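Quick one: structure for this chain?
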Amino acid sequence: MSTTSAVRFASPEHGATPLAAAGEFAPLVLGPLTVWPPVVLAPMAGVTNYPFRKLARRFGAGLYVSEMITARGYLLGNRLTRLLASSHPDERPRSVQIYGTDPLDLGEMARQLVDEGVEHIDMNFGCPAPKVTRTGGGSAVTWKPRLLARLVRAAVKGAGAVPVTIKVRKGLDDDKLTYLDSGAVAEAEGAAAIGLHARTAAQLYSGLADWDAVGELVTRVKIPVLGNGDVWECFDALTLMRKTGCAGVIVGRGCLGRPWLFAELAAVFDGREPPPPPAFGAIRAIMDEHARLLIEFFGELQGMRQMRKWCSWYTQGFPGSARARAELVRVASLEQMHAVLGRFDAELAFPPAALRVRRGKGSQCQVVALPEGYLEQRDDDTPPRSPHTSAELAAYERALDGG
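Got it. Here's what it folds into:
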C-alpha cells in the first residue's frame, strides 16, 4: 500500500492509515453505471438539492443523489417537489431518491423519472421521523418484509433497465433488527444494491455506527452493499471498506460545510495524499458560490434562508465563529453574508478539531412511534395510508428525513 505523508492533515487515528493501493478497490457497479471512486452522496432532506450536488460534483467524481422526493407529491405535480426532483444537463449520472408507500405510485413515479432521463433511483426506507413511522412508513416499512418486497418490486418494474437501490437502517431498535431481511428482499426483488445506515431508527443519529452490521450484510447478499455512517474523513471511507468488504460508502453529515471532502475521497481512492483543507479565504469563496447557486435555484429569499444553515456548517470551529453564526443564521442577502464573513482573516487555516465535529442532526435517541398493533403483523403487506390532500402532503414532506 502507498506510504503516508509526514504532513497529512488528519485526525490522530488516521495518521498512519494507508492510501488505497493500485487495484485494492473496484469501481461501484450499479447495472449499467460504473462509479469511481465508490462514493455516494447520501440523500439528505434540505441538503442534497441541485445547488449542493453541483458544488460537490465539482470537487470529485462519484454518485450524487437528490434529497428524498415523495411519490405522491411528484405525481400530483407539487411545485416544490418537482423543483427538488429537477436537474440540469451538466448532471450525469442523474440520481433521485424516492419515497412512497403505495406500489402503484412508486411504479408510476419510477417510469416517469426514467422517461425524464434519470439514470439511478434510490428508495428510502430509513426515515425515522415519528410523523412518518407512526403511520407505518419510513423505517417502519422494513418490519414487514412482504410489504417491502411489494414496494421494491413495483419500483424495479417501473424503472426497467435503470438501476434501483434501497437504503435502510439496521432496524427499529436493537431488539427489532431487520437489515438482513431487507437485504434478502432487495436481492430477491431485483435491486442493484442496498445501502445500510448502520444505526437503528431508535438511535436516530446518536452513538457510533455499527460497521460490523455492514460487514455481516456483505456476507449475506450477493448484490453490492454500501456502508453508511461515521464517514467524517476521507480515511474513514478506506477503513470502512477494508473492515467490512462493502462495495462503496455513502457520505452524509461529514460533507456538510465541507464539499471538498469529495476531492479528498477521490485522492485517497486513487492512492494520492489528499490536499489540506482550504483556508478561510477559499472557504468564503465556496460559500459565495454556494449561496449564488441557491439563489438561482430557489430565488433570493428562499435561497438565502437555505444558506443560513450552511453558514453555520462552513464556519464550524474557526476562532470567533460562534459569535458570527448568531448573525449568519439571520442573513437575508449576499451582502449581509459577505459583511459578516469579511471579518475573518482569509489566511485562517481550517481547524483540525472541526474534522470530526458532528454537523446537522443532534445526538438524542427516541422510542420509535408505530401504529397500534404494528409489531404483531410482520406478514401483512398492506400499504400504509399515504397523505392525499395538499395540507396532509405539505405536513408530511416537512417531517420527512433522509434516514
